[in-house]
Write a structure and sequence with these properties.
With 154 residues, the chain is mostly helical. Bound molecules: fe (ii) ion (FE2). The site of fe (ii) ion (FE2) has 6 residues, from helix 5 and helix 6.
Length: 154
């Protein structure tokens, strides 16, 4: 199945910011990552708005909340598939959530820069840290097809 079909209807809205290189070929995870990228993209547009600080705080709050859900789903998949580096990965998630929280203090600054900081972390995390669990999770999902979940974004 082509990657763009796996990211769901909501994914169609992020075709411009989603790069096929980010795909881990795990539908649930790809969909959640594309949703995060889509949320982060809203920051890019905030700088032109009069109520930008409010928008930036709101978007960071949304990202914070969705990271909680996504990281928990990812950690659950890693745990079920017996991924040996779960603890180190969990730590990377904890640090990122702390970074997102800290960025709220900078909401009055350049939103495009905040967008860049978040996007760079996420992309690097997907391409390096997440990529490492892929063989374990794919094997687990192939052996437990009933566990394949598609989280269609609201
Ligand atoms: Fe991760």
């Amino acid at each position: 199945m082509p990657w763009f079909k796996k990211i769901g209807i909501a994914g169609a809205a992020v075709l411009f910011s989603w790069n096929p290189e980010y795909s881990l070929d795990i539908a649930q995870v790809d969909e959640e990552h594309s949703k995060l990228i889509q949320m982060m993209k809203k920051l890019e547009l905030a700088d032109t708005r009069r109520d930008r600080v409010k928008i930036v705080k709101g978007v960071i709050g949304e990202i914070e909340e969705y990271c909680r859900v996504h990281f928990s789903n990812e950690e659950d998949l890693m745990r079920r598939s017996g991924y040996p580096q779960l603890e180190a990965h969990r730590q990377a998630h904890v640090q990122f959530r702390k970074k997102v929280e800290d960025l709220k203090l900078f909401a009055a600054f350049n939103a495009a820069e905040i967008h860049q900081i978040l996007l760079e972390w996420l992309v690097e995390h997907i391409l390096k840290t997440d990529r490492d669990y892929v063989p374990y999770v794919r094997k687990y999902l192939a052996e437990h097809p009933e566990q394949v979940i598609s989280t269609t974004a609201p």
